[in-house]
Write a structure and sequence with these properties.
With about 140 residues, this protein is α+β, with helices and mostly antiparallel strands. Helices cover about 30% and strands about 35% of the residues. The protein starts with a strand and ends in a 9-residue tail after the last helix.
Length: about 140
């Protein structure tokens, strides 16, 4: 779900909270060691995201927020903030090249550089949290 989150719209907030859960409490954030990624440089994206990013001349960057049932990738374009909301059951992570990582949801994707230790540490945290909170598969029974 790609939405504009620049303005306080209760319906959009409700939809996002339903999709990926309400934000973590302060105690949970502390126990997780933080829930936000460092600034990520976008190298490639799907057409829907790219059409928003090319509207201005700024560097394309984003950040990721962990939620109980998914992640939110936020990026800015023309003084507006957009969010790509991805629940864990739809999240596909592809780490092909050494310094690139791609996050997919259905037809949307964002590829970013993952060449620093802080970004790699965050990706490992995200993978661990996704694995811990995944639905029980038939093989586990």
């Amino acid at each position: 779900m790609l939405v504009n989150v620049s303005y306080n719209n209760k319906q959009i907030t409700r939809d996002v909270d339903e999709e990926v859960g309400k934000p973590f409490t302060l105690k949970e954030r502390w126990n997780l060691g933080g829930i936000g990624s460092p600034k990520l440089e976008i190298t490639k994206s799907s057409d829907s995201v790219r059409n928003l990013l090319i509207l201005d001349n700024n560097r394309d960057s984003c950040n990721i927020e962990l939620r109980p049932k998914g992640i939110i990738i936020r990026f800015r374009s023309l003084l507006e903030t957009f969010a790509l909301v991805i629940p864990y059951y739809k999240l596909v992570i592809y780490k092909g090249d050494l310094a690139l990582c791609t996050l997919y949801r259905d037809t949307h994707f964002i590829q970013f550089r993952s060449d620093t230790k802080a970004v790699q540490k965050f990706i490992i945290k995200m993978l661990g949290y996704k694995a811990d909170n995944a639905h029980t598969s038939i093989e586990d029974l």
